[in-house]
Design a protein that fits this description.
five-stranded mixed β-sheet, 2 domains, Sulfite Reductase Hemoprotein, domain 1, 19% strand, binds iron/sulfur cluster, 366 residues, TIM Barrel, elongated, alpha/beta
Length: 366
């Protein structure tokens, strides 16, 4: 991507993935990965459709065997976002995935085997215009085969990750293949930052960002926000995937919140709610959760609410003041609340109707 905050341009090459582009002047895209069994086409398609509704732009599925590879065509034809096949060890799975019509292949050439096998994968991808992501993870570096527990400092890890990634990039480029994306992931922020910063100073290949195995929802979101956010704030990174031990829909939402906080993408409304205190006599948390569930699972609501400021406040002490600064909102009383629009009190709405009323208001907007 181009770095706007530091004024220096770091333009990466542009790579097409289905109907999206990664790199160059393209917006930073949001990816996720299914946690269903890819051989179960129905479960996988159902999950991808939920992810599409939440705004996921590129979806990856694991391809552990030939049965999974052969299911890819049926999955691809039932969804509308680009499909990425995640492949390890067996080059034949990558070739079959391309034959099935996937939009991108993620491999680690280091574990695909000898040059002839990598050449076969490249040949298939080139013939179909399918890009390849080279995924380098700190825990599976080639150098670890000789020394599984090296006494490296974080920068040594980062240097080794970049060295191996560049070797793979050059190997593909020697085969006249340039539609490449690279990821350099570690399970800590320090190595992730160092590796991606170093790589971006040496190559124009676009970067897929992520902190691998980031953890539970809270810990993983904090870790990913820092790791991904710090890189993006320096203009480094072209597509993101937040790894969480969670429903992949939450990964998509977390990714967008990072991009939204950095001003790189718009995504749904700006929901303002109070933390509640002893004065509160309505269930603000319940209302916000139900509201988020409605908005973030509905493409139309997501789009229409983009940039809207909506307030849900617990009481009339600070409530009307905050609700007044929003486009619209509600400030609670006992089982009901004052509905405000552009600073004016409009009506009183029963608490159980707040979510429906807000959704109606979003739907009615242009
Ligand atoms: S808006 Fe009211 S209920 Fe909410 S934190 Fe402030 S004083 Fe407490």
């Amino acid at each position: 991507m181009a770095c706007s905050c530091h004024g220096k341009a770091q333009i990466t090459r542009k790579v097409r993935v289905g109907r999206f582009f990664i790199g160059g002047d393209s917006p930073v895209s949001v990816q996720s990965m299914c946690n269903t069994d890819t051989r179960d086409v129905k479960a996988t398609v159902d999950q991808i459709r939920r992810l599409e509704d939440a705004g996921c732009e590129i979806i990856r599925v694991a391809v552990p065997d030939m049965q999974a590879a052969e299911a890819l065509g049926r999955i691809r034809s039932a969804i509308s976002i680009p499909l990425v096949a995640d492949i390890h060890f067996d080059w034949r799975l990558a070739v079959e995935a391309v034959r099935q019509g996937v939009d991108k292949v993620r491999i680690n050439p280091g574990n695909i085997g000898d040059k002839d096998k990598v050449r076969e994968v490249v040949k298939a991808c080139k013939a179909s215009g399918v890009p390849i992501r080279i995924g380098v993870n700190a825990g599976s570096l080639k150098a670890l085969k000789d020394d599984p527990k090296p006494r490296w400092k974080p920068y040594d890890w980062a240097r080794q990750m970049v060295k191996e990634a560049l070797e793979e990039v050059r190997a593909l480029e020697r085969l006249d293949f340039r539609d490449i994306v690279v990821s350099l992931k570690a399970d800590d922020i320090e190595r992730t930052l160092m590796a991606n910063t170093l790589f971006s100073s040496k190559s124009d290949v676009p970067l897929h960002l992520g902190v691998t195995e980031a953890g539970s929802f809270l810990a993983g979101t904090v870790k990913s926000s820092l790791g991904i956010g710090l890189l993006l704030s320096q203009g480094i990174g072209d597509t993101v995937r937040v790894s969480l031990t969670e429903d992949p829909v939450m990964q998509v939402r977390a990714a967008y919140e990072i991009l939204k906080a950095l001003g790189l993408r718009r995504y749904g409304p700006d929901l303002i709610s109070c933390p509640t205190c002893g004065r509160c006599q309505v269930d603000v948390g319940g209302v916000i959760h139900r509201l988020e569930d409605r908005i973030y699972s509905d493409r139309v609501l997501l789009k229409k609410s983009e940039g809207m400021k909506i307030a849900v406040m617990g009481c009339i002490v600070n409530g009307p003041g905050e609700a007044r600064s929003a486009d619209f909102g509600v400030a609670g009383g006992k089982g009901r609340g004052v509905w405000m629009e552009n600073g004016k009190q409009i009506k009183v709405v029963k608490e159980r109707e707040w979510v429906n009323e807000i959704v109606r208001k979003i739907r009615a907007s242009r």
